[in-house]
Amino acid sequence: MAGIFSKIIKGEITSYKVYEDEKCYAFLDINPNAAGHTLCVTKKEVDKVFDLSEDDYNHLMQFSRKVALAIRKAIPCKRVGMSVIGLEVPHVHVHLIPLNSMEDATFQNKQSLTPEEFQATVVKIQDCL
Ligand code: AMP
């Protein structure tokens, strides 16, 4: 059965989509550490990042870099952090997180955004892609 991220990629579940190419899909994390927290997901539903083929892994990293550079331009922050976890959703994804403090990287201090704030964040990042 398709997992939640595959349903998002197919459009069966709505998401705040930032960008996609033939192999990857980027959208805002619904429970963000900080405004602009974005997930870059492989379209192939693979559980663990180091089980990706070398080509798919390299593609995901290039894709994530492109999105991260746009986040860095769009969202005021000290830097954009990157994590791969996958304990909640077993479908490869890179977290890109605008960081101002170590707390922003801990996944303990969540921000709540309105739908309008999520949508405005998407537009800001897309304008910098
Ligand atoms: P992890 O699998 O531990 O790397 O975390 C999965 C991430 O996916 C969490 O940060 C969730 O907030 C996020 N997430 C789960 N469901 C959705 C969804 N429907 N839309 C956007 N983000 C989601």
Describe this structure in words.
The structure is a single chain. By secondary structure, the protein is of the alpha+beta class. It has one domain: HIT family, subunit A, CATH 3.30.428. Helices cover about 30% and strands about 20% of the residues. It has 3 helices and 5 strands. A 5-stranded antiparallel β-sheet has the order 1-2-3-5-4. Adenosine monophosphate binds next to loops.
Strand content: 15-25%
The description of the largest β-sheet is: 5 strands, antiparallel
Q: What is the name of the CATH class?
A: Alpha Beta
CATH topology: HIT family, subunit A
What ligands are attached or bound here?
A: adenosine monophosphate
Helix content: 25-40%
Q: How would you state the average pLDDT, rounded?
A: 97
What is the CA-atom radius of gyration, in angstroms? 14 Å
The count of β-strands is 5
Label the overall shape: globular
Strand-pairing-aware structural class? alpha+beta
Terminus-to-terminus distance: 33 Å
What would you give as the CATH superfamily?
Answer: HIT-like
Q: Spatial order of the strands in the main sheet?
A: 1-2-3-5-4
- List the domain count as a whole number: 1
Task: Give unreliable regions as ranges.
Answer: none
Element order, helices and strands? HEEEHEEH
CATH architecture name = 2-Layer Sandwich
